[in-house]
Amino acid sequence: MPKSRKRKTARRPNPPQLPVWTEDDGVHAILPGEQPSPEELEALSHRYQEQVRHSPIWDRMVEEFGPQEAERILLKFKAEVRP
Known about the structure:
By secondary structure, the protein is mainly α. Helices cover 41% and strands 10% of the residues. It contains three helices and two strands, in the order E-E-H-H-H. The protein has a two-stranded antiparallel ribbon with strand order 1-2. Strand 1 and strand 2 (26-29) form a beta hairpin. It is extended. It starts with 19 loop residues before the first strand and ends in a 9-residue tail after the last helix. The mean pLDDT is 87.
């Protein structure tokens, strides 16, 4: 009988831990790379809003403010670049 072969898995190096923190005005992160274009920032904002919409905080927002006001507040959740 042939010996079973163990599959070799490629080891990926651990990505460096990037600084991420929260303050009163939102979540902040320092990321390497080029500054995103306005279209990329819009896409990031949309993705962020969708993540909030599918999180427990969304249910609390709707409960506290109602669906229309929660939607209006959600539009203020945006990705932005600061100098």
